[in-house]
Amino acid sequence: MPEGFTVIAHKKDPSALVLVRRPPFDICPMCVTKFVVAAYCQATAYHFTLVSVYAPPHKPIEPVLQTLEEVVAMSRSPNIVFAGDLNAKHRAWGPRAGDDRGARVAEFASATGLVFLKDPESEPTYETAYASSWIDAICPRGGLHLAIQIGDTRNEKRKRLTRYAQSELLGALAQEPWFSRVTKSQPASSEALEYILAGFYRVFNHHLKRHLRPVKGRVGGRSWWTPDLALQRKCVNAKRRRFQRCADPTLRSFLKQDYSASLAQFRLRVKEAKRAYEAECHSACSRANISSQSYREAFGKTRPPRLLPPLEREDGTLTSTHLESAALLLRTQIAVDSTATDPLSHTVIRQLASAPYDSSAQDVPFTENEVSDVIAHMPPSSSPGPDFITPLLMKGLFRVQTRFVMFVLNAALRLGYFPHCWRTGRIIFIPKPGRPPQRTTSYRPICVNSVFGKTLERLLNGRIYYILWHNGFIHNN
After folding, report:
1. Class of domain 6-140
2. Per residue in 83-124, pLDDT tens?
3. Domain coordinates of the chain in residue numbers?
């Protein structure tokens, strides 16, 4: 499966599946069996249940229809779409006379309020020289009216900040006059500092939006295909037509042997061309970076996007939507700060934190070398916080606007205030390997904070460690 796709299917020998790639809505799997896969999809303006189904022709269709009835009963949305290969014939979706399986499907659709979208005069599901068949169907519920578009449905092109655009962004920030004006002020309260940071993020987001570049789509086609292979394919096709049109049995046998040999040789050349092309691609990737995409695919290091599955509650029931699963994870895996459970030591700390910061003993302001050392030791591959400032951008911003960065960090130190915009983070739940996916204890939460906030936190930690070491509170070992 290409990178970026997520498969919703049964683990052992699935016959039905749902492929997901950057959907504009949230997805929660509802029912995953060998022959039926149902997923609840929810966006801001709409919601529906998508069902992929396959009914094998050599087995009774009743168990599959019973599973579909259970999906209809448990669906959180009245908008339901069924699509799949039912191996059933009926005049509702094909020109041929129906059979017993088709009658059962039609009865099920009538009982559940489904309508058949497929035109009976449409092209067959498959067609050979001797037979053709109409055995698949798409059935939405009657009240669902959504336009279906085939192809790339993204209205807006995805954009990203390239390395060149990042350098241009830093150049624009270096010439921005707002920084020189704001650094002449002296914030006297936490509200003033919050106001300055709000202005900074407005300026930064304005320039960031201007320098984002559209993501180029992958070039389609077969890069390993050559003109020699195209010419050889034409020769093989000509030999095939000559063999099929020959009426002489003796000559036909000779032409068949010649065609088979040419076809085998052509397939061998195609296989060799594919292998040589892939080897060159992998070698080029390895020369650029040993831990490239080729390495990750070869050693199983790729991480496809994951969907949050239904989770098991305390009473044994399962969640039915992604919002219920997220709420259950937050309730069971994230500690809630409550004064009702505070011991005496925490009560004292809470009172100290809420008291006004008024002291005659002021901390020494952060030095430029101190801040530069903290920023230089940031891992460059760390994820950005909600403000989309990466460690590389932070290093560049400190280089072009050193005075502003020092101004903000020292203002927070002088006021004894950690800004609210740096306290906000994104919580990501990482699955633990080898754990049951339906249990809440199988996920480890991490919080992605602002890089600005991480910088201030590490600066404060360094000051605290120095105080502990200077006063002998740290053991020598």
Report:
1. alpha beta
2. 888 888 888 777 777 788 888 988 988 888 887 776 767 777
3. 6-140, 160-215+363-470, 227-298
The answer on pLDDT for 152 being more than 80 is no
Joined together, the tokens standing for residue 290 give: 């040993």
Q: How far apart are CA 35 and CA 27, in angstroms?
A: 19
Strands (E), 169-263: 213-214
Condensed to tens digits (0 to 9), the pLDDT of residues 207-227 reads 999 999 987 765 555 678 888
The Cα 422–Cα 456 span in angstroms is 9
Q: Find the length of the chain.
A: 477
Q: How far apart are CA 313 and CA 308, in angstroms?
A: 14
| Pure H helices in 46-112 | 62-74, 100-112
The residue whose two tokens read 């990737």 is 285
Residue type, 6: T
Q: Please state, in angstroms and rounded to a whole number, the distance separating the CA atoms of residues 9 and 413.
A: 53
> pTM for the whole thing?
0.67
Phi-psi group of 472: left, alpha or beta (phi > 0 → left; psi -120 to 50 → alpha; rest → beta)? left
